[in-house]
Amino acid sequence: MVERQIEARGICNPRVLAAMREIPRHVFIPPPYDQSAYDDNPLPIGNGQTISQPYIVALMTELLCPEPSDNVLEIGAGSGYQAAVLSRLVNKLTTMERIPAVATLARNNLTSLGIQNVEVIDGDGTQGYLQNAPYDGIMVTAATPEIPKALTDQLSEGGRLVAPVGGRDIQELVTLEKQGDLLIPEHHGGVRFVPLIGKHGWEN
Ligand code: SAH
Q: For 2-191, CATH number?
């Protein structure tokens, strides 16, 4: 999977590639879809939600530029797969999930791999999570009409945010880097995510 779908498409950060090799994706996918765990697709995880395509997980991880000492926030824990990959690359990860049953799934999946530096928080991630802020990186893994200000407020100086921004069906992957009062944007192509539903996202 890593060689054909990820390295071949230009992901080159060695730490990101190593983390993608270490985390078994099938652990995060319920049967019968676990048979397809190493295919180049998003897959259903129940409750109408999906685990992202492996290439997109690798791309978003690389765009975040994670460092070993980083404190990172993820919005949209889903299966916990992206969180597991990030757990290998940063010091501490907080991941938020609005559907309690999905948060439990993420927690169980992470525990089954013995991952201890990830905290799964039940709640609306469009408001961030002030208790563990500021964050060196924030990754939004659900589609948002715009990037909630609460999130950029919780970024540290020099911190980076990556998010799919746009319509409900199709979005563009955007990064923002916080430099003083500025947020420097970069665009990284089209993606398709399930909607971010909450106070500063979609209504439902
Ligand atoms: N990162 C996940 C995939 C995310 S799917 C993985 O690795 O598997 C998007 C997830 O975001 C869904 O589980 C959805 O319930 C959740 N979500 C949507 N809106 C949210 C919000 N406002 N706060 C927290 N989670 C949200």
A: 3.40.50.150
**Which amino acid is it at 73?**
L
Distance 121 CA to ligand 1 centre (A): 12
124 alpha carbon – ligand 1 mean position (Å): 10
**% of the chain beyond a pLDDT of 90:** 100
Taking the centre of ligand 1 as the mean of its atom positions, its distance from the CA of residue 142, in whole angstroms, is 6
Read off the pLDDT band of 204 (50, 70, 90).
Answer: confident
User: Max Cα separation, the chain?
Assistant: 48
Q: Does ligand 1 lie within 6 Å of residue 126's CB atom?
A: yes
* Cβ atoms of 134 and 160 closer than 8 Å: no
pTM higher than 0.85: yes
Q: Is the Cβ atom of 144 under 6 angstroms away from ligand 1?
A: no
Determine the Cα–Cα distance for residues 41 and 34; give it in Å rounded to an integer. 12
Q: Is 52 a catalytic residue?
A: yes
Domain boundaries, the chain: 2-191
Residue in this structure with the two tokens 């169980």, named with its chain if needed: 108
